[in-house]
Specification:
Helix content: under 10%
Number of helices: 0
Distance between the termini: 75 Å
Oligomer: single chain
Strand order of the largest sheet: 1-2
Number of strands: 2
Largest sheet: 2 strands, antiparallel
C-alpha cells in the first residue's frame, strides 16, 4: 500500500486463520498515512533596483 506507514509486528497464528505465528508487516487501512515530502521553497523573482529614482511631479 503506497503512502501507508507500515509496522513490522509479531502476529500469533491460530486455527481460525490457518497461519503460523510469525513477524509480519501491518499495512492495514487503520494505519496512518506517510507524510508527503515537503515541497522545496520556490525562489522569488530577482530583486532589481531602478537606476534612477522616479521623478516626482512638482506642484508648479
Amino acid at each position: 500500500m503506497a503512502g501507508r506507514l507500515c509496522q513490522c509486528r509479531y502476529e500469533t497464528g491460530g486455527t481460525l486463520t490457518g497461519r503460523p505465528s510469525a513477524h509480519r508487516w501491518d499495512c492495514g487501512p487503520l494505519r496512518p498515512d506517510c507524510r508527503p515530502d515537503p515541497l522545496p521553497v520556490a525562489p522569488g523573482p530577482p530583486i532589481t533596483y531602478a537606476p534612477f529614482p522616479a521623478a516626482r511631479p512638482t506642484g508648479k
